[in-house]
Amino acid sequence: MRKVVIIGVGAHVCGKMLDKSLRDLGRVAIWDAISDATIDAKEIQVAYVSNSIAGLITGQEGSRGQTVLRASGLGGIPVINVENACAGGSTAFRGAYLEVASGACDIALALGVEKMFCDDTPRVVRAIASTSEIELSKMGVQFTALYAMHTRNYMQEYGLTPEHFAKVVVKNSYNGSLNPYAQHRTPLTIDQVLNSRMISDPLTLYMCASISDGAAAAILCAEDIARQYTAKPLVEVSACKLASGVFRGRSDTTIPTLSEIVAQSAYKEAGISPEDVDLAEVHDAMAPAELMEYEELGLCKKGEAARMIDEGRTKIDGDIPVNPSGGLTARGHPIGATGLYQVAECVWQLRGEAGKRQVHNPRVALVQNRGGFVEGDDAAAAVIILRRRA
Amino acid sequence: MRKVVIIGVGAHVCGKMLDKSLRDLGRVAIWDAISDATIDAKEIQVAYVSNSIAGLITGQEGSRGQTVLRASGLGGIPVINVENACAGGSTAFRGAYLEVASGACDIALALGVEKMFCDDTPRVVRAIASTSEIELSKMGVQFTALYAMHTRNYMQEYGLTPEHFAKVVVKNSYNGSLNPYAQHRTPLTIDQVLNSRMISDPLTLYMCASISDGAAAAILCAEDIARQYTAKPLVEVSACKLASGVFRGRSDTTIPTLSEIVAQSAYKEAGISPEDVDLAEVHDAMAPAELMEYEELGLCKKGEAARMIDEGRTKIDGDIPVNPSGGLTARGHPIGATGLYQVAECVWQLRGEAGKRQVHNPRVALVQNRGGFVEGDDAAAAVIILRRRA
After folding, report:
1. Confidence label for A249 from pLDDT (cuts 50, 70 and 90)
2. Cβ-contact A68, A336 below 8 angstroms
3. Partner-chain contact A80 B91, CB within 8 Å
4. Residue A150 appears among annotated catalytic residues
5. Which of A102, A104, A246 sits opposite B76 (nearest CB)?
């Protein structure tokens, strides 16, 4: 397979934007990426578009990507609409990657776009629940409940307390305050997090990613022609791995989780080990997940994530910054767009363009994105490893 | 890119099956394909799953493919859920093809599964309309209306009458009567077609594909290892092309349509011309479309499709059989599954396994699948060229 680089990324700010449509959001992200790549829009040969709940929120199924691309002036190229719950963004990225890597085309667009806010919040909540197995969701076993159960299990295993999760939110809300794309830009304190409304014990309101509108995009290019387009540092896709649940549950913590499996496979493909990662954007849909993910990604050993957050090692100025963007809890979590927000943040960081939230001189970045639950295991998990070229 | 062959296909019968779920339908198609390929299910490394309207009919979004695969005993492999309105099946096929062609894996599954029937028919009609641009659908410019307008235009240009469209239905309903997978197995007469209820002038009821439940699957394999698995004739994927609308409308018949563009590109890739095609499965969502498609695919010259159906050239025993399966109007049109039913039919035909509807010794088969309307042009169109290996 051919080497693939990212030559452009773009995004719309995350937030509550009742006056903006799927098209408005998508158009901004697409043209932000085109402008970043300094290419002519006509050079884009194929588009992968991720969206999760437009069918249930706006009524638009089937041709979602086409309606957005047409409104962006990009009619006429093949559009592949993909969906993988909260991992849809990385699934779209992987599709675009495979197009270029295989030689099917030279330049591909990946777009994630999500419109969650509407005038009917119960509908939104049902739509979110529907990205997991609906038979279980309807019994109340939806995202917050499942995360709460996993979290309880994790606390019991390693002796964590809610303060540890609050520390994740404090870090991420601070990072978000530095990110012009973030939905939530107010730094929170441990007390504020712990005293916010209880959603599903031990998860309080501020530990949970909120409803969000947003769109993010990346333009991928065959490495051998990338210099025709951009003078910016090239960001190589060193690995792009996706997996779906093995459905063995998580009650036994000795069984590797899906993120663990997919991370190991990504490290192998990239030819690196976790110690080589300079920054990570991970899927903190609920704050405790970030800690479990430190361990799943091998950023620390099993049971050591609590100490990692206690020691501040994952802050922007720590030795392994995690979620400098603010993560899902602060930057925002527009379901099908999240994976591409994570990619965009890593690209900005690797290029040294992340402004006040810039991590010191990173060379290797990791994206971890996951989505859906089927029989209690992740429906999808993806790990992408990006590397700045010399 | 590597050579890719199809080593197995499978399907559930099309029809109204209120007692069957998405999982029930998908499971049958998957295991029919696995059994046909004579492989161990564990050999399948990735799955592309197409579904169009489960979100609106069953409430299941996001992890649709995972829920079906899990229920089929295939948990643990990466699942990519794709959607492209009525062209979703060919889009899933193309994804699986690209996985194998690129070398990302050796064996990939493509599944299309659709559950349309429910106890609320207006909901189904809205769901179907939502696969096109909803702003236009809501004004009444949905599939039947758009097809009727295109048909009127076509009739005026070339002097066709409703009898020509009725002849398409007569042919396809006869073919469907020979197909154990078909939803409608009663041969119809010209009078029955013309006298059936008017849906959108000049389209009568029997000229329109009906609501359908169904699932179809294909297993794709790298050619160099295919003989490890199957002793059946191998079916090579000689071309697999997808495009989205150029949105120039169709009022000017001198402008190539999307199917025309994508067919030309597929012929070029396969290194053949339309004369080499021995049979075609085309997208007769409304019967007149089949005639327009004869011309778009180059099976005859512009304006000659009427004579082609008059002369019976596209019957099973004609010189270029089209829709031996019965097509969408007779076999059935379970939206996201249709493209894979078309592929399955071509594989059975190329292998000489099509029973009473067997075309005489075909070597090259063409699939044409299309879906959605955005600004009056197809949201997606795909052409796949399959060839029996010596």
Report:
1. low
2. no
3. yes
4. no
5. A246
Strand B235-243 to strand B4-11: parallel, antiparallel, or no bridges (unpaired)?
antiparallel
DSSP state of B172: H
pLDDT of residue B283: 98
Give pLDDT, residue B251: 58
Buried b (16+ CB within 10 A) or exposed e, B322-361: bbbbbbbbbbbbbbbbbbbbbbbbbbbbbbeebeebbbee
The Cα–Cα gap between A349 and A179 comes to 12
- Taken in order of first residue, the domains within chain B and their CATH numbers are 4-120+212-237 (3.40.47.10), 132-209+238-388 (3.40.47.10)
Instruction: Work out the average pLDDT over B117-137.
Output: 85
- Other C-beta atoms closer than 10 Å to the C-beta of A301 total 11
pTM of the model: 0.95
**What is the distance in angstroms between the Cα of A385 and the nearest Cα belonging to chain B?**
16
Q: pLDDT tens for residues B207-255?
A: 999 999 999 999 999 999 999 999 999 999 999 999 987 655 555 667 7
A203 to A161, A382, B360: CA distances (angstroms): 11, 24, 66
Would the CB atoms of A78 and B372 count as touching at under 8 Å? no
Kindly identify which residue of chain A lies nearest to residue B79, measuring between CA atoms.
A244
Asked if the model's pLDDT at residue A250 lies above 80, the reply is: no
Summarize the confidence of residues A259-265 as an average pLDDT.
95
The reply to whether B136 touches chain A by the CB within 8 Å rule is no
Based on the residue annotation, tell me whether B360 is a catalytic residue of this protein: no
Residue identified by tokens 């169109």 is: B381
Cα–Cα distance for residue pair A375/A135, rounded to 1 Å? 10
Cβ burial of A105 (10 Å; 0-12, 13-18, 19+) is middle
* B70 touches A at CB < 8 Å: yes
Mean pLDDT (chain B, rounded): 94
